[in-house]
Amino acid sequence: MKLLCVTILKLASMILPLNGWPELLRFAFDYSKSDSPNLQESKFLILASLSQFKGQTLISSMEDIHQVCLECLTSTSRSLDVKLAASSAVASFIQVFSHSGGDLMLFQDVLRAMMKTLKEALNSQQEAAAQELLKLLIELGEAVPGFFRRELDEVLEHMMQIATTETLKEGTRHLAIGFLITLVEAREREPMMRELIDEKGMAPCPT
């Protein structure tokens, strides 16, 4: 199935820039709801890749993309691998959406679902999956730091907990620290984040 997904993505990279294959997005929507975990994962990977080629033209479908990803992340029957693929799609489209001037409030419930998925991965001792999620959150923090503004208290609390839990792997803890550093650095680029970060006592020491 993953080989098929790779083949589809290679074809998409050649056809989509030419405004071809309009059925691919609907195909991904339909099969993301399939009962097959492999099919679900593949379709979310396709959705994530679509943002590279058709990002700006998919703004009108953003509510559908939001709903499909949210349903996956809040489902109790979806596997962690599928939720990781959905998180990757979310991260890609949030960046496209923000660059087009879209309201990131649309995805706040998805952020909460991603944080819950991170907790589930850690609680089930699946740290490899947790690390992948942390990398996605760092990517979002670098590209769209304002996305975390409304959920900042919960996000910071959870990252601090991960960073200070000695039973977790060093790589996991370092990624949590990396996320915190990313947000601190973002205060220089995002005036609205600066005030919030400073309120939390996370402002960098003057040199």
UniProtKB/TrEMBL annotation:
InterPro entries attached to this UniProt entry: ARM-like, ARM-type_fold, Importin_beta, TPR_IPO4/5
Domain IPO4/5-like TPR repeats: residue ranges: 4-157
Keyword Secreted: no
Endpoints of the signal sequence: 1-20
Domain of life where this protein originates: Eukaryota
Keyword set, alphabetical order: Cytoplasm, Nucleus, Protein transport, Repeat, Signal, Transport
Keyword Protein transport: yes
Gene3D superfamilies for the chain: Leucine-rich Repeat Variant
Pfam families: TPR_IPO5
Predominant cellular place of this UniProt entry's protein: cytoplasm
Localization terms from the record: Cytoplasm; Nucleus
One BP annotation, GO: protein import into nucleus
Recorded GO CC terms: cytoplasm
The name this protein goes by in its record: IPO4/5-like TPR repeats domain-containing protein
Species, as recorded: Centaurea solstitialis (yellow star-thistle)
